[in-house]
Amino acid sequence: MGIEEEIQEKVAKALEAEHVACTDISGGSSCDGGYKLELIVVSPKFEGVALLKRHRMVNEILQEDMSKIHALTMKTWTPAQYESKK
Amino acid sequence: MLSNALRRCSTRSSLILGVSRTAVRSSLVAAANNNSHLVAVGTNPRFLSSDSHDDFAPQKKATVDGEEEAIAMIKSHVEGNRVMLYMKGNPSMPMCGFSARVVDVLKKEGADFSSVNVLDYPAIREGVKKFSEWPTIPQLYVNGEFIGGCDIITAMHESGELKEVLEEEK
User: Fold this and answer.
1) Domain co-membership, B136 together with B72
2) B37-51, B73-87, B150-164: which range is least confident on average?
3) Which of B95, B134, B151 lies nearest to residue A74, judging by beta carbons?
4) Separation between Cα atoms, residue A69 and residue B39, nearest integer Å
5) Residue span of the signal peptide, if any (chain B) (predicted)?
6) Which of B18, B45, B50, B62 has minimal CB crowding within 10 Å?
7) What CATH code would you report for A3-85?
8) Of A31, A66, A74, the CB nearest to B88
9) Average pLDDT in the B147-161 region?
10) How far is CA B27 from the centre of its chain?
11) CB atoms within 10 A of CB B52
């Protein structure tokens, strides 16, 4: 299982996420080596939670994977926000 | 004002790159000239010694040892600089796309900010992650408070929230 699937599974489970998408965007310009990942999480648990706190929730789940990841860029949306982005 | 700038430069926060860096540097040069003048006319025996005094050693690459010292230094940075950015590279030459994006956003907001290049200071690089419990660089602080990394700063810039935070009075 690639790191993307691993992360998707972990995040989906921990945040009861409706939608999780993790993409490897390492291609080319890595400054440090390690994965560069893009993560989209849509979870009702983000309702009423400030952006910084949402990111912290995800960071916490991925704590042990962080050593392998150089950069993680994420979008953390509530289902309503996701709906409006579609 | 000169003495203030000097004091700021001679303390341990000398690794900060401020927006007013040029001003600080020119006042430093002026001060150094004054000093050498004083030494030359004085009877200080140091004038005859071949070693230059420690005061004249380059300050920029001050080393930071140990986590505790690093964290104490970060605390004094974020409390002493209203807008403080920890980044890779410096604002005119960011060494990472994420740092570059935050610098770009701050410029668009028209914000004055101070920065530290964590690539020069490994202890700060690790220390700042512990300090904020945030795993990545860049990190932006306003009025002593951790605001976020690249994604959060970008999103807050787009929503207009960042402007509010930056305009907040201390």
Assistant:
1) yes
2) B37-51
3) B151
4) 54
5) none
6) B50
7) 3.30.300.90
8) A31
9) 95
10) 17
11) 11
Q: Are residues B72 and B141 in the same domain?
A: yes
B80 and B137 co-located in one domain: yes
Q: How far is B41 from chain A (nearest CA, A)?
A: 51
Residues paired with A21 in a beta bridge: A40
Tell the residue number behind the tokens 């916490």, with chain if given: A60
Residues 20-39 of A with CB under 8 A from B: 29, 31
Tell me, yes or no, if B150 comes closer than 8 A to chain A by beta carbon: yes
The shortest CB-CB distance from A66 to any of B98, B135, B148 is to B135
| Overall domain count for chain B | 2
Could you tell me if B20 and B97 lie in one domain?
Answer: no
Q: How near does any CA of chain B get to the CA of A33, in Å?
A: 12
Q: Identify from B87, B93, B96 which residue to disrupt to test chain A contact, counting A C-beta atoms within 10 A and taking the largest count.
A: B96
Same domain? B24 vs B78:
no
pLDDT bin (cut points 50, 70, 90) of residue B170 is low
